[in-house]
């Protein structure tokens, strides 16, 4: 359930909104989340979703979901569907039906015609190369196109012919007539329409000209009566163009753009182009690979909506650089799962233990809750057998100082079970321990042994009551904190794929309590003493459990550092 305390507070955008509401500038706020459907959403989008939908929720306003779909060659319905699913999974509902910038293509065209009639737009024949030459540089002004002074009548005629498909792709553009000497290059007669024959996921083949993002975005906000148009800081230099557009068309409102810093998550990348490269080059299994920083990938990894919303609150909203270590994200997810995930026992690296004095008539099961603080989770009877499995690391023939687990001649308590003593270690021909022979102290179920202390408690599973499981141990996808910002000796950026972590996934066979055979997909659990795991969305099936490691119980990367 959402509540108003779940969202970042005391940031500058909330201050602006509160002042606008108090002054009566607006009676209610209207935000929007405007993704381009050219890929799956990632962790940076999750921050933006929590901001835009969260502000609408906190201030009892509305938030639109609008697809800025002006680039048909890179957009498709798969991305549209995934975005809708991600927003809902994060816990949000958009106002009304989803909107599309393409829904406004007729209005956008009419506004362009009005701009031509007002002498504020013209059809240009410069090639992209010539346009770059004419644009100038950051230190030198641009120069006017030789086609800038076409008459209004000629511009109208050419623009209608562009729409009607009478010119080849790329041969003409429609540009705003602003200022080629502006210190802001975005105002040097920007292109607002180009000819591109491409099938559009929403409008089909109706159009062979498509509006550019800056023009479309500003007008879409104005049509939808957006009160606070929120975007990341790289669009700050585009704001004068945004303002010029909304001031020079007869749209129903005059929204204002506010910028905040984008999220940079270390040991990850948040470029759709580079994420797409990972998918298309086969470095990952798809957009929802659990190693990907996409929302669908994090969901499949076992991250929770609550954990991602907590992360978004903790990173906050500001204009300062927002560089966040992966441990902050993992910590937020871990904190949510601590309360939300039931517990069970699973052995990932099994060592066989034979209980030499096992007597079925004497052994008892013990009821164990699935969570120590959640009675509503219920519990189960933990049963023992003659053969049990423990973790290889829970036995040491030559124990290090402070070792509190099982050793030759030593005792340990089996979690929710008896104290056992190790009497013999059986080795193979290579000298590796392959089996332990141990004995049960039958007088220790639910109570301490007489006359001695047993400090160690380890998890285990009984062979005859265990289920074999497939476990995918996921780690960070990259070995470098900023994989796309590493320069070689020549000063050039190295390919970010050079820093893929070869140990980012390892699949093993393990054993767990047999309740796992009945679990549905996306069932999150804590494997005691090991970490948090989730049954895979795609590959898990009842009777054939597949678990993904979500996050370890502790931050092991900080220990490595």
UniProtKB/TrEMBL annotation:
Q: Give the Enzyme Commission number.
A: 6.1.1.18
Q: What is this protein called?
A: Glutamine--tRNA ligase
Provide the top EC class.
ligase
The protein's assembly and partners: Monomer.
Per the annotation, the residue ranges of the short sequence motif 'HIGH' region are: 35-45
- Residues binding L-glutamine are 68, 213
NCBIfam families from the UniProt entry: glnS (TIGR00440), PRK14703.1 (NF011291)
Record's Gene Ontology CC terms? cytosol
Q: What InterPro entries has UniProt attached to this entry? A: Gln-tRNA-synth (IPR004514), Gln/Glu-tRNA_Ligase (IPR050132), Gln_tRNA_ligase_bac (IPR022861), Glu/Gln-tRNA-synth (IPR000924), Glu/Gln-tRNA-synth_Ib_cat-dom (IPR020058), Glu/Gln-tRNA-synth_Ib_codon-bd (IPR020059), Glu_tRNA_lig_a-bdl (IPR020061), Rbsml_bL25/Gln-tRNA_synth_N (IPR020056)
Any one GO MF term held by the record is: ATP binding
The answer to whether the entry has keyword Aminoacyl-tRNA synthetase is: yes
Q: Name one GO biological process term.
A: glutamyl-tRNA aminoacylation
Kindly give the HAMAP family that the UniProt entry links to this protein: Gln_tRNA_synth
Recorded catalytic reaction(s): these are: tRNA(Gln) + L-glutamine + ATP = L-glutaminyl-tRNA(Gln) + AMP + diphosphate
Family of this protein: Belongs to the class-I aminoacyl-tRNA synthetase family.
Q: Where is this motif: 'KMSKS' region?
A: 269-273
Record's keyword terms, sorted:
Aminoacyl-tRNA synthetase, ATP-binding, Cytoplasm, Ligase, Nucleotide-binding, Protein biosynthesis
Query: For binding ATP, which residues are annotated in this chain's numbering?
Result: 36-38, 42-48, 232, 262-263
Superkingdom of the organism of origin: Bacteria
User: Taxonomic classification, please?
Assistant: Bacteria, Pseudomonadati, Pseudomonadota, Betaproteobacteria, Neisseriales
Q: Reply yes or no: does the keyword Ligase apply.
A: yes
Task: List locations, semicolon-separated.
Answer: Cytoplasm
């Amino acid at each position: 359930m959402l509540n108003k305390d779940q969202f970042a507070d005391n940031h500058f955008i909330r201050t602006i909104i509160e002042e606008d509401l108090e002054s009566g500038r607006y009676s209610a706020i209207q935000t929007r989340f405007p993704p381009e459907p050219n890929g799956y959403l990632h962790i940076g989008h999750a921050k933006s979703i929590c901001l835009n939908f969260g502000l609408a929720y906190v201030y009892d306003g509305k938030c639109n979901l609008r697809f800025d779909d002006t680039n048909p060659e890179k957009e498709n319905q798969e991305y549209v569907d995934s975005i809708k699913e991600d927003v809902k999974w994060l816990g949000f509902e958009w106002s009304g039906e989803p909107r599309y910038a393409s829904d406004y293509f007729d209005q956008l065209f009419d506004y362009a015609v009005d701009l031509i009639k007002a002498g504020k737009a013209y059809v240009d024949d410069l090639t992209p190369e010539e346009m770059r030459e004419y644009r100038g540089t950051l230190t030198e002004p641009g120069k006017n196109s030789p086609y800038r002074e076409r008459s209004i009548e000629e511009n109208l005629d050419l623009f209608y012919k562009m729409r009607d498909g009478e010119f080849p792709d790329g041969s003409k553009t429609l540009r705003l007539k602003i200022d080629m000497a502006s210190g802001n290059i975005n105002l040097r007669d920007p292109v607002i329409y180009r000819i591109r024959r491409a099938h559009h996921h929403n409008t089909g083949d109706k159009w062979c000209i498509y509006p550019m993002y800056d023009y479309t975005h500003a007008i879409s906000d104005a049509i939808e009566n957006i009160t606070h148009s929120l975007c990341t800081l790289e669009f700050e230099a585009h704001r004068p163009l945004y303002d010029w557009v909304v001031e020079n068309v007869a749209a129903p409102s005059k929204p204002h753009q506010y910028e905040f810093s984008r999220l940079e998550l270390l040991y990850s990348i948040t470029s759709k182009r580079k994420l797409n490269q990972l998918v298309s080059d086969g470095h990952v299994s798809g957009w929802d690979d659990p190693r990907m920083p996409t929302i669908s990938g994090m969901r499949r990894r076992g991250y929770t909506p609550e954990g991602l919303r907590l992360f978004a609150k903790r990173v906050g909203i500001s204009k300062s650089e927002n560089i966040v270590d992966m441990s902050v994200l993992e910590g937020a997810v871990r904190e949510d799962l601590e309360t939300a995930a039931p517990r069970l026992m699973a052995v990932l690296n099994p060592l066989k233990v034979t209980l030499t004095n096992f007597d079925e008539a004497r052994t008892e099961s013990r009821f164990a809750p699935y969570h120590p603080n959640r009675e509503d989770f219920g519990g189960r009877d933990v049963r023992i057998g003659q053969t049990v499995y423990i973790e290889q690391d829970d036995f040491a023939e030559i124990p290090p100082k402070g070792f509190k687990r099982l050793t030759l001649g030593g005792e340990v308590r089996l979690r929710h079970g008896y104290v056992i003593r190790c009497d013999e270690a059986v080795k193979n021909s290579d000298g590796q321990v392959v089996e332990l022979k141990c004995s049960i102290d039958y007088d220790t179920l639910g109570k301490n042994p007489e006359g001695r202390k047993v400090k160690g408690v380890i998890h285990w599973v009984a062979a005859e009551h265990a289920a074999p499981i497939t476990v995918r141990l996921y780690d960070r996808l990259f070995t470098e904190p900023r994989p796309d910002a590493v320069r070689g000796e020549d000063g050039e950026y190295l390919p970010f794929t050079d820093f893929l972590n070869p140990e980012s996934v390892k699949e093993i066979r393990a054993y767990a309590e047999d309740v796992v055979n009945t679990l549905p997909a996306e069932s999150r659990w804590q494997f005691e003493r090991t970490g948090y795991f989730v049954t895979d969305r795609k590959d898990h099936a009842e009777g054939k459990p597949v678990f993904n490691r979500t996050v370890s119980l502790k931050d092991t990367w900080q220990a490595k550092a």
